[in-house]
Amino acid sequence: MDNLHWGPGWTQRPTFLDDVAAAVSSEAWVTEWQYREVRPMLARRAQAMIWLDYSVPRRMYWVTRRTLTRRTTRQPIWDSGLREAPLRSIFTEKDHIIRWSWRTRRSLDQLPQVIEREYPHLLLYRFTSPRETQRWLRTMDRAV
Question: What is the distance between the alpha carbons of residues 106 and 96, in angstroms, rounded to a whole number?
């Protein structure tokens, strides 16, 4: 989803909405639940949602590790070629990914109620640990 959203200079691509519409019009797809403006479009076509509701420390560790790795290796992010900002920007940029992750860490706490109220057709699978997720994925392997 980020690859569809972000263009040069960390600006929204003008084709974002059309690209999401094209992606979800295909027979099968998997995406993230991140950009509010496209959530209704995603929900209309989705059958199920998998919520990785892991602990805040685990999520913060992963986002910090990923950010530090991308910054130190200068690894491009997505197809756009964007790169992580300098590490000092965590102190100066309100929306630095680590600060943003901390600020929004509880933004999905009410997700089950939102799904039940606004998208009752969606099956919601909630997993609170990687072990729990792996166990469920193994049952899917056997089902296929």
Answer: 17
In this structure, the dihedral spanned by the alpha carbons of residues 59, 61, 62 and 64, taken in order and rounded to 10 degrees, is 120
Task: Tell me the C-alpha to C-alpha distance, in Å, between residue 83 and each of 24, 102, 128, 130.
Answer: 27, 20, 30, 28
CB-CB contact of 104 with 85 (8 Å): no
**Tens of pLDDT along 95-131?**
899 999 999 999 999 999 999 999 999 999 999 999 9
- Strand-pair category, 48-52 with 123-127: parallel
| 68: DSSP letter | H
Alpha helices in the chain, H assignment, sequence order? 2-5, 16-24, 39-45, 56-73, 89-92, 97-103, 111-118, 130-143
0.90 surpassed by pTM: no
Q: What is the pLDDT of residues 28-62, one digit of tens each?
A: 999 999 899 999 999 999 999 999 999 999 999 99
According to DSSP, residue 108 is labeled T
Cα 110 to Cα 1, 57, 101, 114, distances in angstroms:
22, 19, 17, 6
